[in-house]
Amino acid sequence: MFTSLISGTWSQLRTLGMVFLHAFRRRETVNYPDEEVYLPPRFRGRIVLTRDPDGEERCVACNLCAVACPVDCIALEKGEKEDGRWYPSSFRINFSRCIYCGMCEEACPTSAIQLTPDFEMSEYRRQDLVYEKEDLQIDGPGKDHDYHFYKVAGLAIAGKDKGQGPDEAAPVDVKTLLP
Amino acid sequence: MATIQVDGRSYEVDGKDNLLQACLTLGFDLPYFCWHPALGSVGACRQCAVKQYRDADDTQGALVMACMVPAADGSRISIEDEQAREFRASVIEWLMVHHPHDCPVCEEGGHCHLQDMTVMTGHSRRRYRFRKRTHRNQYLGPFIAHEMNRCITCYRCVRFYRDYAGGEDLGAFGANDNVYFGRHREGVLENEFSGNLTEVCPTGVFTDRTHSERYTRKWDLQFAPSVCHQCSVGCNISPGERYGDIRRIENRYHGEVNRFFLCDRGRFGYGYVNRDDRPRRPEWHGETEETVTLDVDEALDRGADALREARRVIGIGSPRASLESNDQLRELVGQANFSTGIAEREQVCLTRMRRLNRDAGLPTPTLRDVESHDAILVLGEDLIQSAARLGLSVRQAVLARRERLAEARGIPAWNAEAVMTLAQDARHPLFVAYPTATGLDDVADRCLRQAPDDIARLGFAVAHAIDVKAPAVEGIDESTKATAEHIAETLLAAKRPLVISGGSLESTAIIEASGNIARALATRGRRGGLMLVRREANSTGVELLGSRPLEWALDELTRGAADAVVVLENDLHQRLPSGRVERALSAARTVIVLDHQRTSIWERADLGLPAASFAEGDGTLVSLEGRAQRFFQVFEPRYHRPETRIHQGWRWLQALRASLKRRAVPDVTLDAVTRDCARHHPALAGIVEASPSADQRVSGLKLARQPHRYSGRTAMRAHLDVSEPRPPQDPDTPFTFSMEGYYGFDRPRREVPFAWAPGWNSPQAWNKFTDEVGGHLRGGDPGVRLLEPTEDIGDYVNEIPPPFTSGVGEWQVVVLPRLFGGEETSSRATPIMARAAAVRLHLSEEDARRLEAEEGDTLVVETSLTRLSLPLRVDTTLPSGLVGVPAGLEAALVTGDRAWLSLAPEGEEEPP
Ligand code: SF4
Ligand code: SF4
Ligand code: SF4
Ligand code: SF4
Ligand code: FES
């Protein structure tokens, strides 16, 4: 009984002492928002739609990001440019649902959709967390500087006719009899 | 039956099948491309390789193409064999050597057989580093898009288009690596079944252009089991919706009706559902010119007030509306005040046809059964224009001679190339009697181009030649008599003769002639069939309601015996001369119109109530074979457009009736109105059984309308409100407006919104739902048949018209049905308008010469009721004395009318 009282008191005092000593340690938290937070480049935050090296919209409206999204918070519709190029005529992400899992980015075959190191998206109204295409589209290529889907796809677009892609033979002439 | 061993286990299979069919029927996932259940095997793609062993001691085995080897009793095969697997994986790899990097921008993606097979064989990395072959595409018209780079040279497209559907303008060009599938030069694909290329082609070469414009992946579409509303055949369809619009129509397999194929009107004619100008809220067009849009309660109040004030209310039904809606209208106005909304001349034909279906002694075959008849006589129908899918079945019946010949030589029916080579041009006999050329002439034995009365006389003569007790035709000329006798002999010689006729020429004489032939065949004990073509999706059903024709309704209004009218989904101007319709409507004090289209009648109604189209409503239709089939609501229009107030016709009418009686509007369900309708009309008692009721559950679950990968649920309407509403509830059907619910294939069910099975995203997934490939749905084929023949054969009818003679300077009008543009609703769809041929007046060469008119000259056709000017088409097949007018142009022109023709005076405007 007496010994347990002694050891209990000692334990309490020791704890108090240790907590007190922590006041002199280096700080782990940052003084946000007065101080900036460092985020690694692959941090998964606000989603953007990027452009290809030629400055054209990268997204081809394939809908793979939408189907990959576990919370179904992406909705977009396909449009077609005059030259046959597919693009999203509308693109919406409901960030009030997004869990920043990055599945959309992983599914995207064109590197169009990318997550960025930005988490400062709070709003007072939940409705303001619904981002439309103009809120998502950025001007640069994001993390992937080179990929250009239409260059390697078989579709002909303005400036790249059939047979002009890399590793493409000139279109077949069906009228020839030569093998 | 045969016993085969697959990977060491024994199975019972049909010995007439090939190994591929047998394996797929057993449920194995064996990849394939060039084989198709309806087209047979050619062994072109080499994808279906399996190991076959001679006997139990054979451990080596040999690779064979499963689709080219009969499932003979005692066969031993292995699908899982290492070599076979490797072989199949390399075949895919070869096929993909030239395949473009297109999936993200390919309309086939997500329901692509090539994707499925690639995943199934495990090919995932491209090893080939050299140059890819490329092709140029062609413009193929408003229906089909072409992206030739994606071809894997399976030859399915040309085999369907040429060998199955009889098209001539699609071919395979080039040789070896250069093979090209397209037209000899750019242009619209001419065949009426071109849309099936989008499902037959296992890749994205041929895709649905109308869908591409507002593209949605298959996994994002909401589907419901539906029935095509574009003609009377009753093909089953799966319409897909997204964002409140129908995006595409897919074939829905029905083992007895359409099976794998639809016609282009059915597949591409849905655009009227999406029209911007559709009425979406009730409209009040008062005395002041202004239109007021109303909410539901206001609309009902105003409607009820107006009807309450009326002395007598007439109800005009519609053969393009469901039985339930028509019946509710009848309930609202009372049997004594209800009209079917069908013009008298057409209704008379419908009644005759219904009687013949019962008492002509021969049953009505299903479309599938049509294909097993071996001699066919078509009287007065151009099937490809009036009931296209039936025409395609008739073509198969005629070509089936090949399989009979092959059978006699022990060649299995699935061995397509061998069967074709053996049979060459051998065909079952087909006779077509019609005023002008028809779409089946290329496979017909004899095409008899005659005036309607002469067609009827020929028919009566055939009946007489089969059975002398049938009335003889007076004053028949020798050559007609010889033809009739030849036809009679051919029909008698056949195992299963089939007579097809219908209401297209609106001649009761032709219909009765076909009835006499049927009775004669039945009397002579032939196991034949009689098929009678109706015009609209529910013509057969609405006739069974047994009410008066449209003329009666208009007359009641005109003579003041009634002062209010409720018109249900019916543009009366399409049925009777505008003057007559206008007179009746202006005589009425109150005109209430329910429709899903802004028709000319809607515009002049006092109150317009926006009714559901097939996409937003449920109901029952009766097809030309007397099959009652239910179609189900595809989507809830208010989910994406909250301002809309679209409801099913029957729901509006039920509510209007309650408001009229100042009662609270009750919650009615589809099942209740269907039961009511069945109770009111003994002939329709069977419709309750047409599909399962709303309380059907599979393992306790409702059935899902959306595929389980449906995306965007929390974003698609987030711009309206970030908090998603509860998904719409559906008390009327066993389906949910969500992905929650059963969607699999292994619990048999009759009504399947969309076909999907693990690993099978393309339409080939239907093979998982059938009892054997190309067989019947395991849960039973949808619908019930209402018109079975009775035991007693009716008496021969003696209504033989005198032979046709053309007066001098006088012509007889023949209205020619048109697949594209000749039907009320589909002709409001943009792609159909684009596809419809320019309207022309048909005139024989001789008559054109007499009028000194040349091809393209504008002619004026005048009857006692109307006047119309159209450019001339010299039709070398038309007998002289007739003038052919395309259907859907002018309701005042009716087959049989007398008409006068003249060259249009200089400067007369052509109509658009
Ligand atoms: S990060 Fe995840 S939750 Fe957010 S949009 Fe992408 S897939 Fe959806
Ligand atoms: S996956 Fe990429 S290319 Fe496809 S729709 Fe999404 S962002 Fe666009
Ligand atoms: S176009 Fe399609 S159906 Fe025709 S051969 Fe090529 S892949 Fe086969
Ligand atoms: S045949 Fe008739 S029912 Fe069938 S798809 Fe064509 S229009 Fe529709
Ligand atoms: S499916 Fe057997 S070879 Fe093509």
TrEMBL record, chain A:
Main location: membrane
Recorded catalytic activity of this chain's protein: a quinone + NADH + 5 H(+)(in) = a quinol + NAD(+) + 4 H(+)(out)
Annotated membrane topology: Peripheral membrane protein
InterPro entries, per the entry: 4Fe4S_Fe-S-bd, 4Fe4S_Fe_S_CS, NADH_quinone_OxRdtase_chainI
Family of the protein in this entry: Belongs to the complex I 23 kDa subunit family.
Self-association and partners: NDH-1 is composed of 14 different subunits. Subunits NuoA, H, J, K, L, M, N constitute the membrane sector of the complex. NDH-1 is composed of 13 different subunits. Subunits NuoA, H, J, K, L, M, N constitute the membrane sector of the complex.
Protein name stated in the entry: NADH-quinone oxidoreductase subunit I
Lineage: Bacteria, Pseudomonadati, Pseudomonadota, Gammaproteobacteria, Oceanospirillales
Gene: nuoI
